[in-house]
Amino acid sequence: MPAAVPAPAKLTTRIESWPIAGSFTISRGAKTEAVVVVAEISRGGQTGRGECVPYARYSETPDATLAAIQAMAGAFAAGLSRDALQAAMPHGAARNAVDCALLDLEAKESGLRIWDLLQRPAPVPCTTAYTISLGTPDAMAAATAKAAHRPLLKIKLGSDDDMARIAAVRSAAPKAKLIVDANEGWTTDNLAANLDACHRAGVTLVEQPLPAGNDDALMHVQRPIPVCADESVHDLASLPALAGRYDALNIKLDKAGGLTEALRMGDAAHAMGLDIMVGCMVATSLAMAPAMLIAQSATFVDLDGPLLLAKDRDGGLRYEGSTVYPPEKELWG
User: FRET pair for 234, CA 20 to 30 Å: which of 92, 277, 284, 294?
Assistant: First the structure.
């Protein structure tokens, strides 16, 4: 028997802006607001929602992402399924919002939580990293001191004098576990020295030290601590190139193009012997909620986006310190 064609669905989308508490700075620049795109898919009186963050690193803009989602309205009116969506749209932010909206809709229509529907473990609370933005060593030490009570900190680096920043941060938070994220900001010339400085400071993980496409040096340098791919990995097809270069990968739904692909990536990464980090862009709890399913098998969880906002979406995830709880069904899934 041929598979049943889903009933027609109505697709709507919009751009939203959420102020950041202060500013958020990485090696590629700073921003004071999170601009997200929300997709809603309605059918039979139920509506599923998904949220994405267009990423300028990959030439994504809010307007272009909005247009890419709107272009799928006819396909959903004709009954496009989530499986068919994976081939109908490329990986990236636009497909993420639509994929997560479809999953939310499927959960609402079935009356089941999405993890039960997907036959995945029910999510439990996790400890998330808390991000310290890039700045001068003194500024980063001051920001770290305010967050030193948190068990896991993610330190943005990727500029000159990173060894001084590492030392300053460690001095300000002697007991916290540290993750360093260079955001492609190191070079083959300073790679070994920076890795050594991280090792001496007791850093647990270094994320994307070299530019994607220029990371061959990782195959030849001594890696005293695990190195995690971020910009060097997007979807399932990009995993084989990580072998020999990386010890872990950062799965972000906006890169993968949704939870459907992200779950496949997680399964494949474990089969390759790679650790998983689940990451996020600065966004509301609607974007974090689907990633909680990836977090259940992740060694490192970085879902602090709402903590960096001046105000989260109503009904957002519950955060108690650095502990993040699974979503209620009214939010997602």
Answer: 284
Q: Residue 165: give the domain boundaries.
A: 126-324
Verify that 318 and 187 share a domain, yes or no.
yes
- Picking from 9, 38, 10, 36, the residue whose alpha carbon sits closest to that of residue 100 is 38
Q: CATH number for the domain including 18? A: 3.30.390.10
Output b/e per residue, 274-292; b: 16+ Cβ within 10 A: bbbbbbbbbbbbbbbbbbb
255 is a catalytic site residue: no
Give CA separation, 28 vs 46, 118, 141, 147, 305, in Å: 40, 37, 20, 23, 18
Active site (annotated) includes residue 252 = yes
pLDDT, one tens digit per residue, over 140-149 is 999 999 999 9
Strand partners, 132: 155
Query: 137: which 2 tokens?
Result: 């060593």
Q: Which of 252, 255, 311, 329 is catalytic?
A: 252
Catalytic residue among 10, 146, 154, 156: 156
179 and 37 belong to one structural domain: no
Task: Give the distance from CA 241 to its chain's centroid.
Answer: 20
Per residue in 274-312, pLDDT (tens digit) is: 999 999 999 999 999 999 999 999 999 999 999 999 999
Q: Which of 68, 86, 117 is the last residue before a domain boundary?
A: 117
Looking at the structure, do residues 135 and 97 belong to the same domain, yes or no?
A: no
Asked if residue 43 is part of any domain, the answer here is yes
Number of residues that this document lists for the chain: 333
